[in-house]
Amino acid sequence: MTWSVESADFINRLIQRKSNSRLGANGPSEVKSHVWFKDYDWEAIKNKSAVAPFIPPNEDNFDQKYANGAWKDQHSDNMIKQKSVQDLFNGYYYMRLSEVD
Q: Of the candidates 5, 43, 45, 71, which lies 20 to 30 Å from 32 by C-alpha distance?
């Protein structure tokens, strides 16, 4: 799995340490105008006329065939294959819930 440069930039801007530096700190239009959403039809969302990209059949929503398999981040070193994209995340870390006091 690889991330696009646009998606990595979007996430990186959302998780800035200082809240006033985060994407959206100056309002939702800042988020909506990000290049990752360039083809997003905000008007269709507002008017409730957007068509969902996936509509499950009218059967059991909990059917295993619609569930995700193993967590895709189990091997996180393999997720972002471009070093330039990975470098956007340098200095960030996460803690598992079991590590939180």
A: 71
Please indicate, yes or no, whether the overall pTM of this predicted structure exceeds 0.70.
no
Q: Nearest-5° angle of CA 79, CA 39, CA 31?
A: 75
In angstroms, the CA 23 to CA 97 distance is 26
- Taking the C-alpha atoms of residue 73 and residue 50, their distance in angstroms, rounded to an integer, is 30
E strands present in the chain: none
CA angle 36, 39, 41 (to 5 degrees): 115
| Domain ranges, residue 15 | 1-51+80-101
H helical segments located in the chain: 5-14, 28-32, 42-46, 83-86
Q: What is the pLDDT of residues 55-91, one digit of tens each?
A: 777 766 666 665 655 555 555 555 556 677 777 777 7
Number of domains in the chain: 1
